[in-house]
Every structure is written in structure tokens, then in C-alpha cells.
């Protein structure tokens, strides 16, 4: 079984020394890579900039990228041959329209940046998904959690979406624990307790494997 995982943040450069980014640590995506590799899968981990070291497991190939465009290019090259896609990355929704070739100098009292939409990696690859491929997304929501997550599941052609609510203490960014709810395309919903991210990853991988025809 081949698995593609995106993980971590993306950094969108403004000039040679600055970028727009976010607080994603990559921990959930890396934990999923370990859990899939332990289950015998061949994993390609496409990782944005993180402080984590490349997983040592021989079943995991780590590809390092910075921007959403680079993450898309790396993922698109791997996706057609992968049985499972897991989009755990916190991709920047927008990037600066222009990257200044030299360091932007301090000038007026305000500075306006123009941003343009980034490629939606999950949605774009979703349009190429074959019937036997299984796609998993993440949703980090603050309100109307289930409705928003179900809308993303449909729009991005996910078979399963992992919902993190920012209302749950200990869940999401900057924690070693996570509390997730799994929503599936057939309407199933599974609510898990707050657990260490490595254990959450095992729960998610076990659920995905149970949905794959050759593992049933
Ligand atoms: N995703 C992606 N590429 C993007 C943005 C998101 O692959 N450019 C993936 C994420 O990895 C995640 C899922 O899509 O699996 C949901 O991302 P999210 O940012 O919550 O969705 P958005 O469509 O950007 O919705 P929102 O308006 O809530 O930001």
C-alpha cells in the first residue's frame, strides 16, 4: 500500500528574508506517517518547514518543501500511484502576489500587501481521484464544526475528514494531544477522546485501513 501525506505549514515568501506562515508543527502528519509505516505502508511525506527531524522509518520518504506551489508539485507527482492520500498540511490559503527580489525597506506608516489565492492541493487532486483511491482531509473549525467539515468533505471529494474543534482544550495547533471526530462520506461519525497525537494517528490509520477493500 502506498500513502501520500502532506504535513506542516507552508511558508509564502514576501522577500528574501520574510514569509507568511502559520503555527502548524507538522506533528499530526508525522505521527500519521509513522503509524502507516508501522502498519507496513510505503509512505511519501511531503512536509512544509518544521522543526521535526525526518522520520527514521525506512518505509517513509520525506520530501521537504516551503510553499504551497512546491507542496502541490511534490504531491501531484506522487498522488497517481498512491492508494491513500492524507492532507494534514496547514496550507496557506493566500500568498503575496509578488515576491520582492530585495528586502522590502521600511517606508510609510502603513504597508499594504496584495495576496492571491493559493492552489487548493486537496481539492485539485480530488478532481483526479480514481474510485479505488481513498482521500482524507483535516478541518480545524471554531464554529458550526460538523456542518463546515461536511461541506469540505463534499467539496474536496474526501472519503473521510478529521475534524479538530478549537473549542476542545488540548486539541489542534501547539499541543502534543488532539481530540478528533471522524466524519465519513457515507454519513458515519466517530468521536474520539483527547489522546496523544501518536495514539490519535493510530486510531485514524486503523479506521482508514478498515475502509480499504483489500484490508477489510
Ligand atoms: N488544503 C489543501 N490546500 C489548500 C488548503 C487546504 O490541501 N490550499 C487541505 C488541508 O490540508 C485540509 C483541508 O484542505 O486537509 C481543509 O483545509 P481548510 O484550510 O480548513 O479548508 P479551506 O477550504 O481553506 O476552508 P477555510 O475557509 O475554513 O480556511
UniProtKB/TrEMBL annotation:
Xref: Gene3D superfamilies: CoaB-like
Species in which this protein is naturally found: Hymenobacter cavernae
Membrane-crossing residue ranges in chain numbering: none
InterPro entries, alphabetized: CoaB-like_sf (IPR035929), DNA/pantothenate-metab_flavo_C (IPR007085)
Pfam families, sorted: DFP (PF04127)
Protein name, per record: DNA/pantothenate metabolism flavoprotein C-terminal domain-containing protein
Taxonomic lineage: Bacteria, Pseudomonadati, Bacteroidota, Cytophagia, Cytophagales
Domain DNA/pantothenate metabolism flavoprotein C-terminal, chain residue ranges per copy: 2-209
Amino acid at each position: 500500500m502506498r500513502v501520500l501525506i502532506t504535513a506542516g505549514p507552508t511558508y509564502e515568501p514576501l522577500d528574501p528574508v520574510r514569509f507568511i506562515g502559520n503555527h502548524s508543527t507538522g506533528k499530526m502528519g508525522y505521527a500519521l506517517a509513522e503509524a502507516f509505516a508501522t502498519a507496513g505502508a510505503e509512505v511519501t511525506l511531503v512536509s512544509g518547514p518544521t522543526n521535526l527531524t525526518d522520520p527514521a522509518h525506512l518505509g517513509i520518504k520525506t520530501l521537504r518543501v516551503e510553499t504551497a506551489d512546491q507542496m502541490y508539485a511534490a504531491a501531484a507527482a506522487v498522488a497517481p500511484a498512491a492508494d491513500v492520500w492524507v492532507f494534514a498540511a496547514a496550507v496557506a490559503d493566500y500568498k503575496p502576489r509578488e515576491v520582492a527580489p530585495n528586502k522590502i525597506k521600511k517606508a510609510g506608516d502603513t504597508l499594504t500587501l496584495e495576496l492571491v489565492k493559493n492552489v487548493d492541493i486537496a481539492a485539485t487532486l480530488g478532481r483526479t481521484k480514481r474510485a479505488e483511491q481513498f482521500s482524507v482531509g483535516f478541518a480545524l473549525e471554531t464554529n458550526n464544526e460538523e456542518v463546515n467539515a461536511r461541506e469540505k468533505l463534499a467539496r474536496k471529494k474526501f472519503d473521510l475528514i478529521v475534524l479538530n474543534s478549537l473549542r476542545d482544550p488540548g486539541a489542534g495547533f501547539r499541543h502534543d494531544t488532539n481530540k478528533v471526530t471522524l466524519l465519513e462520506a457515507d454519513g458515519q461519525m466517530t468521536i474520539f477522546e483527547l489522546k496523544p497525537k501518536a495514539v490519535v494517528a493510530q486510531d485514524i490509520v486503523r479506521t482508514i485501513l478498515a475502509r480499504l477493500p483489500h484490508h477489510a
